[in-house]
Specification:
Elements lengths: L3 H14 L1 H29 L3 E9 L6 E9 L4 E5 L4 E7 L2 E11 L3 E12 L5 E3 L2 E2 L1
Parallel strand pairs: 1-7, 1-8
Antiparallel strand pairs: 1-4, 2-3, 2-5, 5-6
Length: 135
């Protein structure tokens, strides 16, 4: 009868010195590492919101000027418009874009105008942001 301990030792030595077995374990480790990296990248990507709700106050300088609309124009030319109610607005904008902001106002029943409020970059890791505008 063989000694079972010696048989296991010989088997272990054979597995360690066997090149295909080592290659298989390296492939397994690399495969698991790649899978973990993909999972982490996907979690980060899914955590960043594609749309950000931007809200705030709008002030137009001038005693008779009342803000009516706020327009955000992206570099692509697409414009997003929100109504201004009691000096406040709220709008959903695509994340990671810069917008040219225009404030539209009315003066009396038949006169309107607009004021450029400058560039506004939206780059947020949160799903909401606050920005006040004046013109």
């Amino acid at each position: 009868m063989r000694d079972p301990v010696i048989g296991e030792e010989q088997l272990m030595l054979q597995r360690v010195s066997d090149p295909p077995a080592r290659r298989m374990s390296r492939r397994t480790v690399i495969g698991f590492s790649v899978a973990i990296c993909i999972i982490i990248a996907a979690a980060i990507y899914l955590a960043i919101p594609p749309v950000v709700t931007v809200s705030g106050r709008v002030l137009i300088v001038g005693s008779e000027k009342r803000p009516e609309l706020i327009a955000f124009t992206a570099g692509s030319g697409r414009t997003y418009v929100a109504e201004v109610s009691l000096g406040s607005y709220s709008i959903d904008l695509p994340n990671f874009s810069t917008y040219n902001v225009t404030l539209h106002y009315i003066v009396g029943p038949f006169t309107s105008g607009k004021v450029d409020a400058g560039a506004f970059p939206v780059s947020s890791l949160r799903d909401h942001a606050t920005q006040n505008f004046s013109g």
